[in-house]
């Protein structure tokens, strides 16, 4: 896996700033952190948590790193539980096989139709941890690194794009007939598009089917 420092240096090289004179390390770090969030719809961290049953509780707290639930397994029935989609005609616990179903409600909580007697296992997609030290390894698969670099480069260019917009807000480019002249914005958009192309090459991680 790539380290935080290695990915940061890749971003600097893409930005043609290998000596790190034009962009601060804090800005690049922010861009990498933003990239780790941006890839979640395609690639999330697989994780699970066991919710301890006491026979009376129907609402359980979920981990703070939850991105989305992929499946809920009930040891009582030995089945993956159906999600209650709040459809017309449905009622909680209407599944004939398990008399149980679940909702992610309220926020960061799992609510079951009936109190389970045995533990419940929640399989979920989690957010990627943000590295803190240069030697920390990113948790993401190595094949995500190029996409992370492109997104972080796009993020870093937003600062110069904003600065250029303020400086040139009264410019009028007479030959083209438009007052807009901000190449940094165009480069930021270009790197964002490169990020999307990289991510679209990767198959989205399989999510559970609860219907």
SSE diagram, text form:
Elements: H1 4-14, H2 25-38, E1 45-51, E2 59-61, E3 66-74, E4 79-80, E5 82-83, E6 101-103, E7 109-112, E8 120-126, H3 145-167, H4 183-200
Parallel strand pairs: 5-6
Antiparallel strand pairs: 1-8, 2-7, 3-4, 3-8, 6-7
Helix pairs in contact: 1-2, 1-3, 2-3, 3-4
If you had to describe this structure to a student in words, what would you say it looks like?
The protein has helices spanning 4-14, 25-38, 145-167, 183-200, and strands spanning 45-51, 59-61, 66-74, 79-80, 82-83, 101-103, 109-112, 120-126. The chain has 211 residues and is α+β, with helices and mostly antiparallel strands. The chain folds into two domains: 4-43 and 129-200, no CATH class; 45-126. Helix 1 (4-14) packs across helix 3 (145-167), helix 2 (25-38) crosses helix 3 and helix 3 (145-167) packs antiparallel against helix 4. It is elongated, with a radius of gyration of 23 Å.
Gist?
The protein contains 4 helices and 8 strands, in the order ααββββββββαα. It is α+β, with helices and mostly antiparallel strands and 211 residues long. The chain has a 4-stranded antiparallel sheet with strand order 1-8-3-4, with no helix packed on it. Strands 2-7-6-5 form a 4-stranded mixed sheet, with no helix packed on it.
């Amino acid at each position: 896996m790539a380290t935080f420092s290695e990915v940061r240096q890749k971003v600097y090289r893409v930005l043609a700033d290998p000596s790190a004179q034009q962009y601060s390390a804090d800005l690049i770090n922010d861009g990498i952190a933003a990239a780790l969030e941006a890839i979640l719809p395609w690639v999330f961290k697989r994780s699970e948590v066991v919710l301890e049953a006491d026979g009376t509780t129907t609402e359980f707290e979920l981990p703070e790193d939850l991105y989305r639930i992929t499946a809920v397994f009930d040891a009582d029935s030995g089945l993956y539980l159906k999600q209650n989609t709040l459809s017309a005609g449905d009622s909680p616990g209407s599944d004939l096989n398990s008399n149980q179903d679940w909702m992610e409600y309220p926020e960061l909580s799992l609510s079951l139709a009936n109190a389970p007697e045995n533990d419940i296992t929640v399989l979920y997609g989690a957010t990627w941890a943000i590295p803190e030290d240069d030697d920390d390894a990113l948790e993401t698969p190595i094949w995500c690194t190029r996409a992370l670099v492109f997104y972080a480069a796009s993020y870093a260019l937003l600062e110069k794009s904003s600065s250029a917009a303020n400086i040139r807000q009264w410019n009028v480019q007479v030959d083209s007939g438009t007052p807009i002249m901000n190449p940094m914005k165009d480069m930021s958009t270009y790197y964002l598009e490169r990020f999307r192309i990289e991510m679209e090459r990767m198959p989205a991680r399989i999510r559970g089917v609860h219907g």
